[in-house]
């Protein structure tokens, strides 16, 4: 089971008036982790957009909040590819504080789109090749 782990520090700006991570910021943390996963495979999203004419967008997600993150916490976003479709990728993502404390978990489906039409398109074969080696 391949898993990509991306560290995130919680800054003051990430918290709400109660001093905990604002719920929407977990989505930002997960987005960063997926972007860094693509980067680790050799793909930059701006290059994919500008030179290849494709982009990846969130199609759907299911998210469960379990425990609060707090200012200055050192978190890890774990990403695991669950399913690879013709034009989509489905990830399991979790945000943890340490190894034992699960803060939230999500299933995120990302669609590959033609950048001009915004219609779904097949994931380019050369991207799939790298994903298959991962």
Automatic annotation (TrEMBL):
Q: Which domain of life is it from?
A: Bacteria
The record's annotation in Pfam families points to: 4HBT
Question: Which keywords has UniProt assigned to this entry?
Answer: Hydrolase
Coiled-coil residues are none
Q: GO terms for molecular function, please?
A: fatty acyl-CoA hydrolase activity
InterPro entries for this protein: 4-hydroxybenzoyl-CoA_TE (IPR050563), HotDog_dom_sf (IPR029069), Thioestr_dom (IPR006683), Tol-Pal_acyl-CoA_thioesterase (IPR014166), YbgC/YbaW (IPR006684)
**Mind telling me which CDD domains this protein's record contains?**
4HBT
Residues annotated as domain Thioesterase: 18-104
The similarity comment for this entry is: Belongs to the 4-hydroxybenzoyl-CoA thioesterase family.
Mind telling me what this protein is named?
Tol-pal system-associated acyl-CoA thioesterase
Origin organism is: Nitrosococcus watsoni (strain C-113)
Q: What is the lineage of its organism?
A: Bacteria, Pseudomonadati, Pseudomonadota, Gammaproteobacteria, Chromatiales
């Amino acid at each position: 089971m391949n898993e990509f782990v991306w560290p995130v520090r919680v800054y003051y700006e990430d918290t709400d008036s109660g001093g905990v991570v604002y719920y929407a910021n977990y989505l930002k943390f997960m987005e960063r982790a997926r972007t860094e996963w693509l980067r680790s495979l050799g793909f930059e999203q701006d290059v994919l957009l500008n030179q290849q004419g494709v982009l990846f967008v969130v199609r759907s997600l299911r998210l469960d909040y379990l425990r609060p993150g707090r200012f200055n916490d050192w978190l890890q976003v774990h990403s695991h590819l669950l399913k690879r479709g013709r034009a989509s990728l489905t990830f399991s993502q979790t945000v943890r504080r340490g190894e034992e404390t699960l803060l939230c978990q999500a299933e995120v489906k990302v669609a590959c789109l033609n950048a001009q039409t915004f219609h779904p398109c097949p994931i380019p074969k050369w991207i799939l090749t790298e994903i298959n080696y991962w």
